[in-house]
């Protein structure tokens, strides 16, 4: 049995992480012990799922004939529910809620030995409960199943039933950094989903040397997609992991720390304050920077891009009972507009296209969503741009459009896209394309050995679209890329193969989307757009390349699973309206 522990010097026990702007060095996490690496065939021992019989509950939950192959059901054990399923003739019992946002997995998709979440597409192994595809960080508990006298019994830990999530066992940092605070084994630039998952994956795979994660943010890694969906949310509510987690697993986080240059020849990153940090392996996950308006009055007060929790919170405070203008009818802009309708006196949206989401979801779906917003008092100014922001005593008062319309505004949110935050790499020798993205291969490797990149700032080959080089700035994709990068830092030869999956929420309704629809030439819609109960298949030639739905779960997760299996969905299959081939048992 393999045992790993970290011994912290007395003076460092209980010490919280210091920000880069704080007193003392934030880069001097102390640890003692010899470095220990694991071979590919070694794994950390999993804790026993049932620490004591008094902590367990066991019950007969059904007859063996109650479930057919491919079926799932929730069963009650008294202390909590369990997801019971039958796959390839075997019964399995798992946690019943997705650890990401709590979706009921019984409404998801069972296929190819895994359960896919109906809401956001995360996948879990039926044999282990392990998280196999994202979003989210935690796995499911796996419970014991036995068959006696044709009855199915499930035995589970009471604690596991109540927790409904399981964090994988991780190695602890035992690499000495005392006296060597200027060097690290792995440096991760960017603490979004890609950076955090990379760090966690390294520890899960047994890597026990030093990991440093640096971020421009003031906070530990947080759930950024929530910013535009729930602008009132406080930073502590957004945290993906508590600070104790990072301390326990020896993942050092440098907040408010900006890397300004990377010296790939000497394997060194230089920070804005002059500090230099050597690395053995480097992950670049800097994300993107929001585009801003370039018009007269662009510097007036109360004009925001939603980048931080402070941005989001200030927008809500300023909009309450007043006039809000949102520039841009993409996902961020429309989420903000939807949230502000119950707070602001008026909400107006300015957009260059004819309909919201037009390039992404097409004309018909975009128009249906536009009607939903109009029914909620949102005013649209389409096919126009902002020509001037007018102020009164330095603060925004009016937004002037190129169509000559003047819109009253006390606060303005700009959501007109983003550019990769890669300016610091221009002289590094790391390849950037003409738009500033970092090209990587299927293993998330850049052109420089030992340097990987992931997240919003990369272009990568999309496996199921003939390895076409694409940029997909989705939360779920960043998770997947972070894991692949970590696996290849450990020479595991993993390749990125996940099917893109995203979601948005507006007025209590969720829209789900899977695939990569750029360049679609037709949209096949089943259901009722007026009732916002539909599924839209986006096709290119004879092939379905993406799917979107509202109130049609788990159709998007099912399509994602079909695409992940490598099967091509033909246009004629979705034109008939008969989707029985997609809705399999257990859905």
UniProtKB/TrEMBL annotation:
Subcellular location: Mitochondrion
Molecular function (Gene Ontology), one example: metal ion binding
Stored Pfam families: Pyr_redox_2, Reductase_C, Rieske
A GO biological-process term: execution phase of apoptosis
Disordered: region residues: 6-36
InterPro entries per UniProt: FAD-oxidoreductase/Apoptosis, FAD/NAD-bd_sf, FAD/NAD-binding_dom, FAD/NAD-linked_Rdtase_dimer_sf, Reductase_C, Rieske_2Fe-2S, Rieske_2Fe-2S_sf
Assigned protein family: Belongs to the FAD-dependent oxidoreductase family.
Protein name: Apoptosis-inducing factor 3
Natural source organism: Muntiacus muntjak (Barking deer)
């Amino acid at each position: 049995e393999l045992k790993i522990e970290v011994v912290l010097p007395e003076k460092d026990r209980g010490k919280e992480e210091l920000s880069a702007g704080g007193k003392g060095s934030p880069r001097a996490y102390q640890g003692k012990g010899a470095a220990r690496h694991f071979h590919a065939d070694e794994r950390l021992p999993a804790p026993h799922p049932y620490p004591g019989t008094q902590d367990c509950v066991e019950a007969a939950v059904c007859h063996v004939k109650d479930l057919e192959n491919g079926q799932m059901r929730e069963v009650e054990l008294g202390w909590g529910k369990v997801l019971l399923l039958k796959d390839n003739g075997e019964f399995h019992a798992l946690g019943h809620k997705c650890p990401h946002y709590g979706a009921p997995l019984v409404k998801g998709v069972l296929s190819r030995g895994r359960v896919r979440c109906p809401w956001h597409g995360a996948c879990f192994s039926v044999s282990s409960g392990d998280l196999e595809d994202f979003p989210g960080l935690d796995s499911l508990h796996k419970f014991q199943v036995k068959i006696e006298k044709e009855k199915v019994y499930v035995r589970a830990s009471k604690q596991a039933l109540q927790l409904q999530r399981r964090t994988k066992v991780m190695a602890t940092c035992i690499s000495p950094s005392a006296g060597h605070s200027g060097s690290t084994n792995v440096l991760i630039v960017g603490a979004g989903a890609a950076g955090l998952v990379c760090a966690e994956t390294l520890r899960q795979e047994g890597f026990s040397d030093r990991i440093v994660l640096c971020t421009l943010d003031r906070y530990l890694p947080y759930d950024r997609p929530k910013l535009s969906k729930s602008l009132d949310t406080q930073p502590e509510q957004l945290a993906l992991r508590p600070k104790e987690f990072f301390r326990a697993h020896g993942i050092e986080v440098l907040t408010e720390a900006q890397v300004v240059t990377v010296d790939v020849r000497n394997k060194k990153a230089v920070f804005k304050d002059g500090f230099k940090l050597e690395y053995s392996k480097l992950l670049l996950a800097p994300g993107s920077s929001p585009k801003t308006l370039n018009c007269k009055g662009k510097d007036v007060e109360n004009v925001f891009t939603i980048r931080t929790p402070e941005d989001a919170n200030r927008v809500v405070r300023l909009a309450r009972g007043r006039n809000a203008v949102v520039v841009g009818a993409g996902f961020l802009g429309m989420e903000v507009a939807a949230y502000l309708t119950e707070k602001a006196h008026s909400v107006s949206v300015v957009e260059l296209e004819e309909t919201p989401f037009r390039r992404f979801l097409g004309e018909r779906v975009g128009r249906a969503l536009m009607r939903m917003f109009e029914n909620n008092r949102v005013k649209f100014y389409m096919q126009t741009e902002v020509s001037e922001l007018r102020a009164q005593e330095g603060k925004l008062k009016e937004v002037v459009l190129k169509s000559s319309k003047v819109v009253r505004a006390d606060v303005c949110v700009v959501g007109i896209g983003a550019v990769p935050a890669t300016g610091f790499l221009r002289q590094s020798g790391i390849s950037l394309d003409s738009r500033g993205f970092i090209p990587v291969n299927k293993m998330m490797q850049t052109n420089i050995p030992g340097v990987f990149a992931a997240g919003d700032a990369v272009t990568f080959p999309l496996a199921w679209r003939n390895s076409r080089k694409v940029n997909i700035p989705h939360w779920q994709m960043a998770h997947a890329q972070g894991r692949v990068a970590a696996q290849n830092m450990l020479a595991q030869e993993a390749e990125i193969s996940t099917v893109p999956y995203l979601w948005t929420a507006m007025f209590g309704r969720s829209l789900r989307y899977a695939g990569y629809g750029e360049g679609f030439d037709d949209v096949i819609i089943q259901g009722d757009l007026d009732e916002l109960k539909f599924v839209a298949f986006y096709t290119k030639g004879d092939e379905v390349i993406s799917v979107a739905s509202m109130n049609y779960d788990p159709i998007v997760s099912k399509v994602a699973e079909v695409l992940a299996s490598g099967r091509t969905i033909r246009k004629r299959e979705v034109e008939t309206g008969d989707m029985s081939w997609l809705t399999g048992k257990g859905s």
